[in-house]
Amino acid sequence: MLAFSSRQDEGDDARIATILDRQVPAEKLRALKQLGAFHALYRKEEIVYVAGISDKPRAAIAVRAGGEILGSIWVVVDGPLSEDRTQALQEAAKAAALHLLRHRTGEDVERRLRADLLATVLEGGTHAPQAAVRLGLSVQPACVLALAVTGEPSAPDRVAAGHRVAEALALHLAAIHPRTAAASLGGVTYAVLPTGSDQDALRVAEAFLGRMGDRVPAVIGIGRLAARPAELRRSRADADRVLRVLGSGRSQRRSARLSDVYAASLLEELTDRIAAEDDLPDGPVIRLRAYDAQHHTAHTDTLEAWLNTFGDVAAAAAAVHIHPNTFRYRLKRLAVVAGIDLDDPEARFEAMLQLRLHPPRH
């Protein structure tokens, strides 16, 4: 919701909620999608009439600049529009398109400048302090937030979704602190948020993702607190490490600090080293997986369940849906096959580490 006209109190509850929250209520958005309203709106030049979603019907028209959709105008109506009102709404859409284009042209220049300055700050170097001064980021501590859209990289709407969520994050942060700087660099949206602690930055990230809901699958990594601009580069590195963990499936969180996912981050880095140097030696887990693949057994899953439940046979057996006595037999068998002493804490730790580095594919 960018703007609204007067007398909106004469609308209905859905319109009032949209204005107050600056976004369409989630249940109304789902209903509009199921009805095919957006499909019709963005593929037709004509006005789309929508009824049955809210207390009052809507008339909507897309705001276009050539073949590009810039947005849409929605009007609360009592019924289908007359010819005069149809023409008035069409003219309003044309005027809105010109206004948005002029506004975007000026914003693009400012956005590119701020993106260049922010990139200079985050990369560090001799020019970083001056860039931080120009962005107004040199007067108090700050954290770097890194946002990325998850999902298939080849999805056709992933880039568009990334742009939308990046703009939404910039607006959200600007409302919190006027000196926030945000820019998209290499497919990731970075923001520098002046704050007194990374915990406050985490709350901001959680609030933003909560407002977004599940409309866009996005995650946010938060770097450590930077007391001065020179430390923002390290904060960005932290945020990037968190992003990788959140996108790898090792954590179910949508936002986190490095301290929240530090162990998982180390596992990601160790996985990289193993992949680059191919230095994972033969061990119990490797032997178990080879045996399972050859004999169609499930010894690796058995070992993982036992380790995850701290040796509680009853709980481990329930996790893999077998009888405890069957589980005990498998446990003895896998110890022989893998050549592992399950009473040795070092052997257990090594097995857990290898399972975490390469989780079994169920």
How many β-strand stretches?
8
CATH topology of the largest domain: Alpha-Beta Plaits
| Spatial strand sequence of the major β-sheet | 5-6-4-7-8
Structural class: alpha+beta
Number of helices: 14
Helix content: 40-55%
Give the topology string: H per helix, E per strand.
HHHEEEHHEHEEHEHEHHHHHH
CATH class category label of the largest domain? Alpha Beta
Rg, rounded, reads: 27 Å
Average pLDDT reading: 85
CATH superfamily of the largest domain: Reverse transcriptase/Diguanylate cyclase domain
Explain the overall architecture:
The strands form two sheets. Strands 5-6-4-7-8 form a five-stranded mixed beta sheet. A three-stranded antiparallel beta sheet has the order 1-2-3. It has helices spanning 13-21, 26-35, 37-43, 83-123, 128-135, 158-176, 198-212, 232-248, 262-277, 284-295, 299-308, 313-319, 324-338, 345-357; strands spanning 48-50, 58-65, 68-76, 142-149, 181-185, 188-194, 218-222, 255-257. The protein is globular and about 85 Å long. It has three domains: 8-102, no CATH class; 124-273, 2-Layer Sandwich (Alpha-Beta Plaits), CATH 3.30.70; 284-357, PucR C-terminal helix-turn-helix domain (Arc Repressor Mutant, subunit A), CATH 1.10.10.2840. The protein is an alpha+beta fold and 362 residues long.
Detail the topology: elements first, then pairings:
Blueprint: H1 13-21, H2 26-35, H3 37-43, E1 48-50, E2 58-65, E3 68-76, H4 83-123, H5 128-135, E4 142-149, H6 158-176, E5 181-185, E6 188-194, H7 198-212, E7 218-222, H8 232-248, E8 255-257, H9 262-277, H10 284-295, H11 299-308, H12 313-319, H13 324-338, H14 345-357
Parallel strand pairs: 7-8
Antiparallel strand pairs: 1-2, 2-3, 4-6, 4-7, 5-6
